[in-house]
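@channel sequence for tomorrow's demo:
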Amino acid sequence: MSVSVFAPASIGNVSVGFDVLGLAVQPVDGTLLGDVVTVEPAEQNALAVVGAFADKLPAEPSDNIVWQCLLLFNQALEQAGKEVEAVKLTLDKKMPVGSGLGSSACSVVAALVALNSFYDNYFSEDVVLKMTGQMEAKISGSLHYDNVAPCYLGGLQLMIADENIITRTLPGFDDCYYVMAYPGITVSTKAAREVLPTQYSKTDLIQYGQTLAGFVDACYRQDKAQAFGQFDDVVAEPYRENLLPGFANAKQYLLNQGCLAAGISGSGPTLFAVTDDKALAESAAIWLKENYLQTDFGFVHVCKADNQGARCISR
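structure tokens (generated this afternoon):
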């Protein structure tokens, strides 16, 4: 028996919710924007890495986060008294590293969900979610679920300050398009965090709280005007935009064209724009291809919210 799991890309922070909001997205043209991990029986544990961005990952299997997921999962099995089987994992790395699209989260979620599926969903959803958080913390140095939660569960996720809850699904805006533009350059999460202040003013704190609360309220009332009318990131964007060539000009252009909002996906360099007009989304994508991409590795996708999250694509 073998099982393959796809885990979708995500927008971390969603601008107004630094480390506490995340949205899974999927291109409308059916492109698999995310990672796929396959688990199959083997005589001994092994890892193979394929895909468009395989050469961007460590050559040594033990240095790969998917291998670390296997070690964590097997440890949990042993502690639960479950017999551990030898497996071969194959990571199809479709996501660019350091893109701001939750690349590491995709690998982690796809690996852990595939392993759990291989063992007939031995662990509950809550247990697997906590495992994804453990692995993401190992990568980034701090525990935050804003990429792994939407990648795993789908939709728009709000992180809760309760380790027994972790996240709640918010009602999203299903008629909105999210234009995702990855310029083809890398911005490490570590570097993007280092440019942030160690302290914020009381004014910024109040604005952040009001904006996030207003966005959550607007989601429940399905009020797009309120949700995106005050879509201001006071925590990260003012300090990170200089790391993204052309971001400020592109954002202003998109807003002038009528997009509801635009911002930095995760820690960048991917830019996202929001609109409920399909024609505008398509024209924005064309403009971004011509004006925001920096290398041949860059791409633009018109997406909608992915409400499925991680799922088996073959078994």
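heads up for whoever presents: The chain has a mean pLDDT of 96.
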